[in-house]
């Protein structure tokens, strides 16, 4: 029997391990864990090493049937920037894996070493209509909810640069392994005259602590791998060519812990923030839409784009 308290609501839940899947379903329904409350099955998610139905050109998914470990490779050259299509593909892939009962863990990485993910596609928020920007933001929220709220062991194998939205993706995972060397990671939004939303700021605070997060967020700091390890922004470093192997080894350690107890523990700590975003979703969309389409912000974005091109 597990009993625990979440946020200000006291929830007592009896989970008889022997009751197996039925109890699992009840648990996920009660807490709206993962993308859907129901555990739907996707018939295409089976063969070892075969691409999932959600695999599209921009997100490649393979799963080892024996271990239940899936690897999700972002494949949106040149820098895996998160445009609308990418956000939709990632979300759909996370949801399929979530609903695949034989899947126990996912490793998120880049198909193109040296850049894990360059963050949001800046062109998606440059000179676009308020409606477009609002829809784009909702896609990001939904993708984040599906990853941050996942019952799976989620591991970021950060095989390259990971600024802004790239850092957001890795912060949504349970554990981060980053390539050694000159690569950088961090939430550099203020450098673009953008303000990270509350749910992203909170995950940064949760991972590296209040003082360091406050400072990092204000100055839009990008840290080298070594500094990121020192701050606790990533958990482990590995040579770039070994990041995937080290991630697989680490996942196997995590999978020695019973799934149910691990997932319930994860949910107990993440539920308040998940609930908060679900509750304030529309308000968050409006803030993003209004802030991003402001002329002064558009000019900052333009200057940032010019700086990137001139590099
Ligand atoms: C609450 C209210 C407000 C709320 C608002 C809050 C938002 C918070 C959430 C997150 C916000 C973000 O993610 S904002 C995004 C922030 N991202 C960044 O600052 C990363 C910028 N990129 C880089 O630093 C670098 O590209 C890096 C990733 C290190 C890779 O360097 P490389 O030398 O390998 O590659 P580059 O030559 O720089 O880039 C290759 C090409 O890709 C383009 N490119 C690079 N990054 C890009 C990007 N993010 N979007 C589009 N295009 C990009 C370059 O312009 C080049 O285009 P060509 O010249 O045409 O080839």
UniProtKB/TrEMBL annotation:
Subunit composition and interactions: Homotrimer.
Source organism: Branchiostoma lanceolatum
Major place of residence: mitochondrion
Keyword terms, alphabetized: Acetylation, Fatty acid metabolism, Isomerase, Lipid metabolism, Mitochondrion, Transit peptide
Family the entry assigns: Belongs to the enoyl-CoA hydratase/isomerase family.
Gene Ontology cellular component list: mitochondrial matrix
UniProt-recorded name of the protein: Enoyl-CoA delta isomerase 1, mitochondrial
Localization: Mitochondrion matrix
Domain of life where this protein originates: Eukaryota
Recorded catalytic activity of this chain's protein: (3Z)-octenoyl-CoA = (2E)-octenoyl-CoA; (2E)-tetradecenoyl-CoA = (3Z)-tetradecenoyl-CoA; (3Z)-dodecenoyl-CoA = (2E)-dodecenoyl-CoA; (3Z)-decenoyl-CoA = (2E)-decenoyl-CoA
SUPFAM superfamilies: ClpP/crotonase
GO BP term, pick one: fatty acid beta-oxidation
One Pfam family named in its UniProt record: ECH_1
Function description: Key enzyme of fatty acid beta-oxidation. Able to isomerize both 3-cis (3Z) and 3-trans (3E) double bonds into the 2-trans (2E) form in a range of enoyl-CoA species, with a preference for (3Z)-enoyl-CoAs over (3E)-enoyl-CoAs. The catalytic efficiency of this enzyme is not affected by the fatty acyl chain length.
Gene Ontology MF term list: delta(3)-delta(2)-enoyl-CoA isomerase activity
Coiled-coil parts of chain: none
Pathway, per record: Lipid metabolism; fatty acid beta-oxidation
């Amino acid at each position: 029997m597990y009993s625990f308290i979440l946020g200000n609501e006291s929830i007592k839940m009896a989970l008889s391990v022997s009751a197996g899947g039925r109890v699992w379903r009840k648990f996920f329904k009660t807490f709206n864990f993962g993308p859907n409350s129901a555990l739907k099955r996707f018939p295409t998610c089976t063969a070892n090493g075969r691409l999932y139905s959600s695999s599209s050109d921009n997100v490649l998914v393979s799963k080892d049937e024996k271990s239940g470990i899936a690897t999700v490779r972002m494949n949106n050259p040149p820098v895996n920037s998160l445009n609308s299509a990418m956000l939709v593909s990632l979300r759909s892939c996370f949801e399929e894996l979530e609903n695949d009962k034989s899947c126990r863990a996912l490793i998120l990485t880049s198909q193109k070493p040296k850049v894990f993910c360059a963050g949001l596609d800046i062109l998606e928020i440059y000179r676009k209509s308020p409606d477009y920007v609002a829809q784009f933001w909702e896609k990001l929220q939904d993708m984040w909810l599906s990853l941050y709220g996942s019952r799976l062991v989620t591991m970021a194998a950060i095989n390259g640069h990971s600024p802004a939205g790239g850092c957001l993706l890795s912060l949504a995972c349970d554990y981060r392994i980053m390539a050694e060397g000159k690569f950088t990671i961090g939430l550099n939004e203020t450098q673009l005259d953008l303000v990270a939303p509350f749910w992203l700021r909170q995950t940064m605070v949760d991972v590296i602590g209040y003082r360091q997060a406050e400072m990092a967020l204000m100055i839009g700091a990008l840290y080298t791998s070594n500094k990121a390890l020192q701050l606790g922004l990533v958990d482990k470093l590995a040579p770039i060519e070994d990041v995937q192997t080290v991630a697989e080894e680490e996942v196997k350690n995590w999978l020695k812990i019973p799934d149910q107890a691990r997932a319930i523990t994860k949910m107990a700590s993440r539920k308040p923030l998940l609930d908060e975003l679900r509750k304030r979703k529309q308000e968050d969309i409006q803030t993003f839409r209004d802030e991003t389409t402001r002329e002064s912000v558009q000019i900052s974005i333009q200057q940032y784009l010019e700086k990137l091109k001139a590099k």
